# Entry
Amino acid sequence: MKKPILPKGTRDFNSSELYKRNYIIDVIKDTFSKFGFNPIETPSFERAETLLDKYGNEGERLIFKILKSGNFLKDTDISDLKDKNLIDLSRKIVDKALRYDLTVPFARYVVQNQNDISIPFKRFQIQNVWRADRPQKGRFREFLQCDADVIGSNSLMQEIDFICLFEKVFTDLNLSGCRIKINNRKLLMAICEIYNCKDKFLSLTNQLDKIDKVDRIDIRKNLLNDNFEANVIDSVFNIIDLSADFNKNKEALSEIFSSSQIGSQGLSEIEFIFSYFSKNKLSNSKLVFDIGLARGIDYYTGVIFEVLPPENVFIGSIAGGGRYDNLTEIFGLKNMSGIGISFGLDRLYLVLEELDKLPDYSNNSTQAIFLNFSEDFSFDLINFSNILRSNNINCEFFPDPINVKKQLNYANKNNIPYVIFYGDEEKESCNYKIKDMNTGIQEILTLEKLIKKLKK
# Structure
């Protein structure tokens, strides 16, 4: 028989890993609630037309598509196969897709439920997404996103509030030194406007999105291949370098973008955000302006975020997001600006694990187990276990009356701290013998004292 293996980019999680993951999720979920967000959920897959043409060429390539049910080839003919136009062919044989992110499904949800929600609408969503990416450290094909979005407000107060939300989560996770990078897509649009290459905007953002992973020399070669002039590329890198110290180079940047209305607007928005944090400094994180930040998803239109871990941890971004003005318009609802952020749980887990910031969880939540000496005690063990459970004590019983040594080995292997002996002697005296598996100390207690001890 062939040995079973997992699909690439997916994982199993043991109990200890899930306790730690749930610890992070609980911190994020609690923070979302504190900031006024309420939960929703959407299906794991959407109609293909809902997801396609929303993420740019790179994102489109990574969407897991689902074949039509039944005879999925019925709308094709032999010429479709011979032409090898895979994009056109896939559109004929596919009608659904696994969600690539949580933002586009959220926009669809808003449009469908616009008469039942209040504006601005704040929601959080913690669900799996899927991407047909090349698996590597911190990058999986199935992973959990923790999203929060506000839709229906143009106010830059939302951008500031999300930065405060990042800070709150990292503080509660005891994670200091994260770098919250911000930029504005309006500035990237302005660069293309100023240097007469508006038709190359997507090419520019696509290349800048790789700037943290690829050497500038390679980025330069790629831009030259995309017909950018050498002096324009030099100017772009110069602007990026100036943005590294916003307060020092603010006037120089203002001069560069003064000829562009959208550029001046974008810079003004950045200045508004920095003016708040110049008076209300972040205590655990660092706010960084970086015009090289692009976020390679087409629907972003304004301020964008990307959060990097502390500098001594070498992994990609652990959170990101940004403002989108036209996403619901795709589904027929105009003038509905939104902004959202997303935590990547898997990378956040890896960072906390590397820095030894995760609580030490046992593989088992059971506090005590009743040993089984005979089938004559079966009903008693069930009843006593339920009494302890009704007192908020995690408890189980060993189901089979096998050798006591094997039952004790089970308790040890599962890190169960206490075992309870209940046999003829205990039944007659109406007491319970409890053993501390860490110290070996045994006590004989009444039910009331047993409950009191375990509740401690």
The chain has a mean pLDDT of 91.
